[in-house]
Structures are given as structure tokens and as C-alpha cells.
Design a protein that fits this description.
By secondary structure, this protein is of the alpha/beta class. The chain has two domains: 8-199 and 382-408, 3-Layer(aba) Sandwich (Rossmann fold); 202-377, Glycogen Phosphorylase B (Rossmann fold, 3-Layer(aba) Sandwich), CATH 3.40.50.2000. Helix content is 35%, strand content 18%. The chain has 14 helices and 16 strands. The protein has helices at 48-56, 99-116, 132-135, 161-171, 180-186, 202-206, 216-219, 238-247, 284-288, 311-317, 328-335, 346-360, 363-377, 382-408; strands at 8-12, 34-37, 62-65, 69-71, 76-81, 87-94, 123-126, 142-147, 174-177, 193-195, 225-229, 252-256, 273-277, 293-296, 322-324, 340-342. Strands 1, 2, 3, 4, 5, 6, 7, 8, 9 and 10 form a ten-stranded mixed sheet that branches. Strands 13-12-11-14-15-16 form a six-stranded parallel sheet, with helices on both faces. The two termini are 40 Å apart.
């Protein structure tokens, strides 16, 4: 399938030209558009929205609308087509614009995008309930709420978020949750809600078992190496990391990912902790291949109460022993099967790391564990998750279409 490559940038609300989809009629059905509203930047960390929207873009136009950026310009849209085929849309608003005018301008911009890009009968897909403030007027075929996290529990969450989520739950035709514990918390609030834990790109991360080269910035770090890859924010237990790194100077901790919402100066600074920053998704297996144990040192707080970390199956696919704090979905899904070690206190967490290191010295036992992990992950691919969600969305479309016909009759 040919992908449109021409992009649109800094497009004003008075005229949004669909140049990004030039000649798209040859390959796409306009009635199958999907418009996604997300709190996550497309180019931030490659995770659930990117995996799912890239798959939807295989046979339909997908518009991924981010939160606004503020600067020295009049209200306008920036639009570009990613290599995946997803059109990434960013509202650009002037500095100093307050909340109510910003909502009004985003409504104007989104309405203009729908008109000028010929969007109709679309699926609207929400990751952020806050987008309902400027999209409730849209005419769409079906409304999907993919609740990947309990955003209201995150640091600096808008006070209006819970209200907008309630409104979105009333409007949605189908709701997904990013894990089982989040499903349990939300299931009484919607009639068509489904636990849909994130998938795993098994082939991608499995390459970590055979990569023979070391990324340059990890190459000189001594072993054993204990690795973490993900967003570094209020969900990380930095006190736990500090205590273990100080108690075990012979271990080296590799921390990969962007630091957000917390002061980087608050992170523990020891000679055996190595902060390597954000890395492209494509390079993660190369880094993981050089680790001896993978870590999930999450804090146990409101922000982690309902999380179902995608990195758990990624680590396992990479063939790495995993040590995690007692995140509910990790305990329920992985601990009983012997795939992840669980500990919370520094001494117990360190003991679990040592046990994982010891396991690696028994080649036969370690290979058996890797095979067990691989068999467990077979049914957790992103393609399976996407197809399951697509089927449920199509059922919701059929239900709504049937209701419309019944009402019209």
C-alpha cells in the first residue's frame, strides 16, 4: 500500500488543506477514518497508542491529535504524516492563552480539520478525557475510550479530569482498560467495558537474546548490569533505587528513559547508577541484550495503583529475569507462574536481584525459564490485542447503526 508522504505544517484554522492525504482516495475509504485524541506526544515514548494507531493506519486514515503547544503564533494546526501512515496533528496556540479561549480555539481547529479533510462517519478514540471539552459536538459513528491509565491519580492531573471522564463514559460506545485492576475499578461505570492489557512485539524484543554488539554509551558500564527502560516520573521508587545502589556498589544500574514531572536533581546520584536518557524504540533490544536483570522499581502510590506495565512482557521477551515491586497486575499475572520476582523493601529487593543473578549461572534452568516465558507470551502480541479491540469496535458500530435504523423507523 502506498503511503502519503507529503506533510502539512502550521495550517491555519481558516483553511486546513488535506495535502497530507493527497491521492489517498486510491487506497482508503473515507468512511473508515479514525480520529484519536491523546495526552501523549506521538514522538515521546513508543507505547500503546503508537502500536494500536499504526495498525489501524494500515487500512484507514488515522488522525492522532495531541495536546496543544503554545508559542508565538496565531491559532493553527501542524499536520504531518508519520512513516506509519498516521497523521500527527498538533494544535498550536499563542502564548498566554487561558483555558476557556484555548478550548474554544481547539474546537474551531478540530471542526475545520473535519470539514477540510473530509472526515465523516469516523471512529473517535480517546486516551484523554480532557479532549471532550472541545470535541463533544463532533458527529461520529462510534466513540471509544481506551483508558490505559488512571490519569486522575497522576501528578499535576487537571482538577476537571474526573468530570470529563464521567462525561466520556456516558458518551462512549465501548471502553477498554489497560489492565485487569483498572477494569475492576471501572467496570461498574459502563455497560460495554473490557480489560485489554497491552500487547508485546515479541519478535522485536526477542532479538535482545542474540544481539552481539553493545550500544556505545552502555559498552563501558561494568557488569552485572541491572536495567530499567521507561518513563522516569513519580511512579519510580527513587528511594529504593538509591538504597540498593548504595548497598551494592558492585552492581551497576542502567536507567533508560525521559525524566518528566519530577526534578532530575531528585534522582539518586551514585557512581554505579547510569542515566542514559531516552532511546528510540528500535534500539531498546540492543540495550536490554547487555543487561543481566531487568528491574521495575515502582513506587506503591496512587499513580501506580492500577498500572499494568508494558515493560513486563518486553523484558520477558528479551529473555531477562525480572524483579518488580508488588504492582497488583504484575503479581496477579506473572508472579504465580514464576516469571517475575516480587519484593518491596530494599533488602528483599536486593535479595531477589541476587537470586535472579544466580539463576543465570545455571544454563539449563535459565533456558527452561526463558522457554516458559516465551510460551506464556505467545497470546499477548499487539496484533492479537488490536484485532480483539477492532472486533469490539466493529460490534459497537453495528449496534449503533442498528439503533439508528430502529429509531428512524
Amino acid at each position: 500500500m502506498n503511503r502519503p508522504t507529503k506533510s502539512v505544517s502550521a495550517v491555519s484554522s481558516s483553511k486546513i488543506l488535506p495535502i497530507a492525504f493527497e491521492h489517498i482516495e486510491e487506497t482508503f475509504d473515507y468512511g473508515r477514518d479514525l480520529v484519536c485524541f491523546s495526552h501523549l506526544r506521538w514522538d515521546f515514548v513508543y507505547q500503546r497508542p503508537q502500536h494500536l494507531m499504526s495498525r489501524f493506519a494500515r487500512d484507514r486514515r488515522v488522525f492522532y491529535v495531541e495536546e496543544p503547544l503554545f508559542g508565538n503564533h496565531s491559532p493553527q494546526l501542524s499536520m504531518r504524516v508519520d512513516s506509519s501512515g498516521v497523521c500527527v496533528v498538533v494544535p498550536l496556540l499563542p502564548n498566554g492563552m487561558t483555558s476557556k479561549p484555548a478550548i474554544s480555539e481547539q474546537r474551531v481547529l478540530v471542526d475545520a480539520m473535519f470539514t477540510d479533510c473530509g472526515i465523516r462517519d469516523c471512529i473517535t478514540w480517546y486516551y484523554t478525557p480532557m479532549a471532550r471539552a472541545f470535541t463533544s459536538q463532533l458527529k461520529c459513528r462510534v466513540i471509544v475510550y481506551d483508558c490505559m491509565d488512571e490519569l486522575a491519580a497522576f501528578k499535576n492531573a487537571p482538577k476537571e479530569l474526573k468530570w470529563h471522564e464521567s462525561e466520556l463514559l456516558r458518551a462512549a460506545d465501548v471502553v477498554f482498560t489497560g489492565g485487569v485492576s483498572l477494569y475492576e475499578a471501572k467496570k461498574s461505570r459502563h455497560h460495554n467495558i473490557h480489560a485489554m492489557p497491552s500487547g508485546i512485539d515479541i519478535d522485536h524484543f526477542k532479538t535482545a537474546r542474540s544481539i552481539l554488539y553493545e550500544p556505545r554509551d552502555q559498552r563501558a558500564i561494568p557488569r552485572p548490569r541491572l536495567g530499567f527502560a521507561g518513563v522516569i516520573d513519580e511512579r519510580m521508587n527513587i528511594d529504593l533505587l538509591a538504597a540498593i545502589s548504595e548497598a551494592h556498589p558492585e552492581w551497576h544500574f542502567v536507567v533508560i528513559g525521559p525524566v518528566v514531572k519530577i526534578d532530575p536533581a531528585s534522582l539518586p546520584q551514585h557512581p554505579n547508577i547510569h542515566y542514559l536518557g531516552k532511546k528510540p524504540y528500535a534500539e531498546l533490544p540492543a540495550y536490554m541484550s547487555g543487561w543481566d536483570v531487568a528491574l521495575m522499581p515502582f513506587a506503591l502510590n496512587d499513580a501506580t495503583r492500577y498500572i499494568s506495565p508494558t515493560k513486563t512482557p518486553e523484558y520477558l521477551a528479551a529473555g531477562k529475569p525480572v524483579v518488580s515491586t508488588s504492582i497488583r497486575d504484575v503479581v496477579a499475572t506473572y508472579e504465580a507462574k514464576g516469571l517475575v520476582r516480587i519484593a518491596d523493601a530494599p533488602e528483599q529487593f536486593a535479595a531477589a536481584i541476587q537470586a535472579a543473578l544466580n539463576d543465570r549461572n545455571d544454563a539449563g534452568r535459565f533456558q527452561e525459564w526463558q522457554a516458559q516465558a516465551e510460551a506464556f507470551l505467545e497470546n499477548m502480541t499487539w496484533d492479537r490485542a488490536w484485532m480483539a479491540m477492532l472486533n469490539l469496535v466493529e460490534q459497537a458500530v453495528s449496534t449503533r447503526d442498528g439503533n439508528r435504523r430502529a429509531n428512524a423507523g
